[in-house]
Please model this.
Amino acid sequence: MHRSIATVSLSGTLRQKLEAVAAAGFDGIELFEADFINFKGTATELRGIVADLGLSIDLYQPFRDFEGMPEPQFRRSLERAERKFDLMEAMGAPMVLCCSNTSPLAMDDPALAAAQLHELAERAARRNLRVGFEALAWGRHTSLYGQAWDIVKQADHPHLGLILDSFHTLSLKDDPAGIAEIPGEKIFFLQMADAPLLAMDVLQWARHHRSFPGQGDFDVTGFFTQVLRAGYTGPLSLEIFNDIFRETPNRRTAVDAMRSLLYLESEARQRLAAEQPQQRVELFNPPPVAALSGLSFIEFAADEASALALDTLVRQLGFRRIGKHRSKAVTLYRQGEINFIVNAQPDSFARGRFEAHGTSVCALGVRCADPLAAVERATAMRSKRHDSPVGPNELRVPAVVAPGGNLIHFVAESLGANGLYEADFILEEDAPTAGNDAGLQQIDHVALGLALDQLDTWVLFTRAVLGLEPGESLELADPFGLIRSRGVANAERSVRLVLNVSLSQRTRTARTLSVTGGGAVHHIALNCEDIFETAAKLRANGTRFVPISDNYYDDLATRIDLAPELQERMRAAGVLFDRSPAGDYLHIYTESFEGGLFFEVAQRIGAYDAYGALNAPARMASQAQD
Ligand SMILES: O=C(O)c1ccc(O)c(O)c1
Ligand SMILES: [Mg+2]
Model:
């Protein structure tokens, strides 16, 4: 499809926006009037810039408060329209968006509205321009697409058509099914926006909290498929009013925007595959998402000194050092099925991450059947692949760059538990090393501390590139501000990430972020079968846990019916507890390493499917009282 984006969706000057949009591979733009009014140049000059970038101006917008106006105001608006038509001709914009009237003067008279829009369309037709009419969710008398379509039908002018915007329909919980009945050629333009479900005034919601398809909670694919069923073949455009996007570097926003359209097209293509033998438009067809089957390894970036400190830390956690890399200063540790790699190789990718972010996680390894297919999916979805230098007899592990610059490696399942490591490491499984196995089995989840403007980017990346599904978005209280937390996981729940964002500058998460530069792993949760046994072993190994207030356990007893012995065991061990209808979650947090990264030990019982987020405030308050 012809892919377009409204200039309001990005930060920067108009010229910077256009350059970012062109670099991300868009075909066209919706030009917001404010961007043109503040542009230092003529409409003709803008036309040249846009053309040089290989873009088109698909839509000029908005015209407001037009239909249903009393005669004097209507005449004045027509005059104004003529002046805007002059500009549109000069800049080469073929269509104007007229949104439904929000003025207190607007009359509830569809026949009048139709006659007035007819006149506007007639004037547009004289210059071979077109007018699209869009129902705003807060329009005074026209708020639904069905009402706007009735007016357009009644106006019956070839230069007047309907503009659809998923936000207005989905925010009002209006049924998009009727769109499929509208003749495709009378839908002149399509604007797609997603949004988180928020209980708030719809105008505020629309102007501040929209997001790209795939980042929010709306069934945008369902909406889009109705438009395609109608036979629409025009531009597919993004119109995102979002406070954070207004300040996010626009190159990143533009890539997110393109990724969201590619994802939307591919999802719609799958839904329509069965019913439409002959598609009318070309929808993006990427390789399918690779089914992931677990987190294989976590790689830490270190220098020589911090590698030593990490060595002590991970051995206290019960890991054994089981291998040295064949050609690099890289050490492998293992416990259960968990592999930790400490990479202190000078002049490596890891060292670059160490220099930029300090001791930190620089890569994750995820298992999947076909790593090359996983990389193909990722690059199709506009992620960059990463090729590390490979020494003799070493395996090439395909990798892609995650937002923020860490790597995701795809590890072939066929290699088995040891395959990758046998190839790249000289294994000494039986090497006598300090640190006793504590019963940690798998990587339960990896929690990232993200800057506010990285959350939506990550939600879309994990969804479109890795095939993970986002869970509920929660707000958790740190003593110094709020943390927003959202888990993302694959269908079989063998790969889980938790995306944490600090809404305050003063929380521990925010401070870690300012030290590490953001996008860093904030904690690593490892699971076990008996948390009391594992915690006792870890303590004996020298691991220190965050103490939990006695008051927490008193309160827990009032909330959840638990055997008194279990309560007392938890209190004695400092173990936290959460219960959902599906199952229970017992967990405990270690103290931080170098004031940043820490570990969580977790035991899942039954089909518990969350992360004990309700207990995070207990941890954060305890850390703050240290
Ligand atoms: O918020 C608005 O005014 C506005 C303007 C134009 C649009 O296309 C829209 O969806 C909203
Ligand atoms: Mg709109």
